[in-house]
Amino acid sequence: MRVIVIGAGLGGLCLAQGLRRAGIDVAVYERDAGVTARFQGFRIGLAEQGLAALRGCLPEELHPLVEATLGDLTGPARAVDPWLRPLSEHPMAGVIAADRHVLRHILLAGLDDDALRFGKELTTYHVRSDGRVEARFADGTSDTADLLVGADGINSAVRARLAPAVRPHDTGVRFVIGRTPLTDRFAGLVPGFGTRVVAQDVSMLLGLMRFRRSPREAAAELVPGLSLPGTADYLRWAMLLPPGRTPEPAPGRDGAQQTVLARTEGWHPELRAVVEAADPDNSTLLSIRVVRPGPRWPLGPVTLLGDAIHATSPSGGNGANTALRDADLLRTLLLDAHAGRRTLPDAVDAYERRMLRYGAEAVEHSLAALVPFLPPTDRTAAVVAAAGGVRHTSPQSQP
């Protein structure tokens, strides 16, 4: 069996690791020029299901390194006003955090040039008469496999051909996200799980990423020869800008920071200091878009994984976990096909039926979790309409 994965994000790499571990021939094609070619995001929460997927797919020698580079989020989540006066506090169960950039480097471990190819943009694919699928790339090259997996994100080229009716929906909400080196001074702003700053027309979320061990030092001891980024502990912050109120980004390298500073005149000096001290190369303005799985496409040797088919709002804290769940589920079913316990079409069918169901639930949950972060005047049908008519109940939020 040979599998082609389009996209070297967390889900695609996790699947590739799991298949290689089982002896299945797999190649990953990524359109970016390299692993650091663009902004990759910061801290993500890992549920037990996400951690279990990593353990199931990664070689055992990498398990201790994953554990060593996680962070522990403990204590209550609190809400404060822009002058840091307490508004509310509620207990949170212990949550595990990972840095997306560091975790992606771990998932790249052992994938050589034959298995991982950067600078390869998929233009189209073709299902051949023998049932195999041929992927074609912008540089004129092609590759053939028994299964093509589109793990190429919210703007998926695979989805555009496989399920053209399924498109991203823009919620209208924008957010500026940034990273500030963690100091004792700033650590006091997040004494527990996270801090949410509630203002009249915006919300600002603060969270810590404290590694159990320095990623670079942990790799040097646990997996000699593997180089991880020298990422130090940091405070991650994000400001949500409601629909229709997003200013044009300020010009210059620090434009994202200036956009936030312009919205925080009169706020507590410590909050403004966090933004002022941020790394401008890791601060950016982003839109919140989602992809809701639509009607199922005809069964064949092409399928989808992660944000390509069920992109969630970051407010749900479940995007990466759902992509990792996809990878582990598909890995398990493909191993059955590889061993002759089921056919490849049966494996793909079983995967898609389960993935589409829980993927749709993940998107709905993330949209429900977005609503509390909006000002009361914006908690309207705008987000619902942008998301394709999903109705939300029992909103839950994660700072």
TrEMBL record:
Domain FAD-binding intervals: 296-365
Which InterPro entries would you find in this protein's record? FAD-bd, FAD/NAD-bd_sf
Per its UniProt record, what Gene3D superfamilies does this chain match?
FAD/NAD(P)-binding domain (3.50.50.60)
Keywords, alphabetical: FAD, Flavoprotein, Monooxygenase, Oxidoreductase
Name of the molecule in the record: NAD(P)/FAD-dependent oxidoreductase
